[in-house]
Amino acid sequence: MSTTPIAIVTGANRGIGRQVTADLAARGFIVIAGARDPAAITPHAQVIPVRLDVNSDDDARAVAELAQSRGGCDLLVNNAGIFPRRHDGGHSESALDVEIAQMRDAFETNTLGPLRLTQALQGALRARRGAVVNVSSGMGQLTEMGGGSLPYRTSKTALHAVTIGCARAFGGNGVVVNAVCPGWVRTDMGGEEAPRALAQGSASVVAAAFLDKAKDDRPTGRLYRDGAQLPW
Which of 65, 119, 137, 210 has its CA 20 to 30 A from that of 179? Predict the structure, then answer.
């Protein structure tokens, strides 16, 4: 069995996911880089592009089988996410005029997608005492909750609940599950006005994967940015 660490990154074809893939590969990981269009990911010795739609049970099972064939999974980065917009292109809707279809789409990808992958990979994660990092957002913090962009906000709030639930289910002494707010990052979703570079957002995500890794009681069920714990 190979001792080379194995990571799985969803949404690895662009933005933070692509940068996290590159940064983990540079750290010596073999990265199973998932995207709905794997042809958009450049393969090399450390990166294995795979088709991975986080809404697909079949894709989740296939990735889990691939990880198991390589001895397990050291790190799952649930990065894939969407920011649903109204049919007219807007996204500042309140709870009183939000389209239910937007809510459903946001929860399917941003909340249920990470849960689906974590469930599918639980055996592979236990085999390596792995870590799960859910890429979230400060927009999902109850302490920062505003009135607009309700589908995205609430799907990330629900992801926080999933993070805590999975952390408790794993028990804390083996697999750890944490969420990360990488900040407002210049990506297709974040826009050019965002103050943080891709490298900063990726570094925040990667830092959460290595929190007290040598300890038996590693932190779990928490929210971080740049290695510092944030309130839910």
Answer: 65
The answer on pLDDT for 213 being more than 90 is no
C-alpha torsion sign, points 109, 212, 74, 26: positive
What is the C-alpha separation between 143 and 232, in angstroms, rounded?
Answer: 7
Structural domain includes residue 121? yes
- Rounded CA-CA distance 133/224 in Å is 10
Query: pLDDT, tens digit, for every residue of 79-100?
Result: 999 988 776 766 556 788 889 9
Q: pLDDT of 63-84, one tens digit each?
A: 999 999 999 999 999 999 998 8
Residue 183 lies in a domain: yes
| Domain region containing 21 | 6-230
The domain tally of the chain equals 1
- Which pLDDT value is given to residue 96? 87
Six-digit token pair at 201? 């957002």
pLDDT at 46: 97
The answer to whether residue 1 sits within a structural domain is no
Instruction: Give the amino acid at 144.
Output: E
d(CA 58, CA 203): 31
- The mean predicted confidence, pLDDT, of the chain is 91
Three-class secondary structure assignment of 31-71: EEEEECCHHHCCCECCEEEEECCCCCHHHHHHHHHHHHHCC
Determine, yes or no, domain membership for 11. yes
* Dist. CA 121–CA 63, nearest whole Å: 8
